[in-house]
From TrEMBL:
The keyword Ribosomal protein does not apply. The lineage of its organism: Bacteria, Bacillati, Actinomycetota, Actinomycetes, Kitasatosporales. It is a multi-pass membrane protein. It comes from Streptomyces iconiensis. Coiled coil: none annotated. Keywords: Membrane, Transmembrane, Transmembrane helix. The chain crosses the membrane at residues 23-45, 51-68, 80-104, 110-130, 137-158, 178-195, 207-227, 233-253. It is found in: Membrane. This is Bile acid:sodium symporter family protein. It holds the Pfam family SBF.
Length: 339
């Protein structure tokens, strides 16, 4: 997406708009099909759990390649808004995960999985959804970027604090895993973008689909690993995920409005709080807990993209029907489609 420097408003081409809509629309379908495949033919993915961290590394490398120095400059321009987004994200979602696990009396494995989803950083699909909702894309990119960078420092201790009552949590090992599967691939992607920007630019249209396919494989592996338990737990997990995501979207939007950030920024806050990097949560749950604990992350991967796309469509339609459209601020929705 290009930016009009005079109006400070993104001026995406028709092709870019169509590509963003297609990615958000088809990604949940792709993940749903992958989950069904994992459920119907679990033997096909037997032993695949060992590959999940490497697959996540591919996704995060794609995210790093889409980053530019402009993303980090956005943090310096509005530190207060970015800080609010980070606090809201890492307070609301972990807290909601803990409350929902208690309220629904989830089993220890599922409770730990729900909480771990809440402790994960923002999912980069939130950038595209914010764009489609005519929200503040620059703020969305800034919050997603910083939440990912600080995840090694924040996600393990939060998981230990909130999920430790259900299952043993090795926070130190979790820090190492996040550094290897998230931060290092992101930094590697950023370096590649800086060194080989011309070639990377040509490949950018392919990266969201590479990321989407990789996430779909992760979901298939996670579902296959807990196929026997899904039938009895699926309804409860879906309820937990819908509550978690829906309340996160609402609280994120409310935080933005209460802080006086305005409508576009509040929309960005909503999606940055309510949409999670559930691919990371699935990887960590598989490595540190069990395939069953990764089930909430797999379901979240599908649901938060569906709910985000529906919410974005409703907000955009409301703007078109109203006399005063909300508009957007400068930024880019070029992040990878991520769960």
């Amino acid at each position: 997406m290009r930016t009009d420097q005079q109006s400070n408003t993104p001026t995406a081409t028709t092709a870019e708009q169509r590509g963003a809509r297609r990615a958000v629309t088809l990604f949940p379908v792709l993940v749903l099909l992958a989950g069904a495949l994992g459920l119907l033919a679990p033997g096909t993915f037997s032993g695949g759990s060992e590959a999940v961290p490497y697959l996540l590394g591919v996704v995060m490398f794609c995210m790093g390649v889409t980053m530019t120095p402009q993303d980090f400059k956005g943090v310096a321009r509005r530190p207060w808004a970015v800080a609010l987004g980070l606090v809201a994200h890492y307070v609301f979602m972990p807290g909601l995960g803990w409350l929902i696990a208690h309220a629904l009396h989830l089993s220890p494995q599922l409770a730990a999985g729900v909480i771990l989803v809440g402790c994960a950083p923002s999912g980069t699909a939130s950038n595209v959804v914010t764009y489609l909702a005519r929200g503040d894309v620059a703020l969305s990119v800034s919050v997603a970027t910083v939440s990912t960078v600080i995840a090694p420092l924040v996600t393990p201790p939060l998981t230990l604090l909130l999920a430790g009552e259900y299952l043993p949590v090795d926070a130190g090992s979790m820090v190492t895993d996040i550094l290897k599967t998230v931060l290092l691939p992101v930094l590697a992607g950023l370096v590649v973008r800086l060194i080989a920007g011309r070639w990377v630019t040509r490949a950018l249209p392919v990266l969201p689909w590479l990321s989407a396919l990789t996430i779909a494989v992760i979901v298939a592996v996670v579902v296959a690993g807990s196929a026997d338990a899904i039938k009895s737990a699926a309804a409860m997990v879906l309820l937990a995920v819908v509550l978690h995501n829906g309340l996160g979207l609402a609280l994120g939007y409310g935080a933005g409005r209460l802080a006086g950030l305005g409508e576009p920024a509040s929309r960005a806050m909503s999606f940055e709080v309510g949409m999670q990097n559930s691919g990371l949560a699935a990887s960590l749950a598989t490595a540190h807990f069990s395939p069953l604990a990764a089930l909430p992350a797999a379901v979240f991967s599908v649901w938060h993209n569906v709910s985000g796309a529906l919410a974005a469509a409703w907000l955009a339609r409301r703007d078109r029907a109203g006399a005063t459209p909300a508009g957007t601020t400068a930024g880019t929705a070029g992040g990878t489609t991520e769960s």
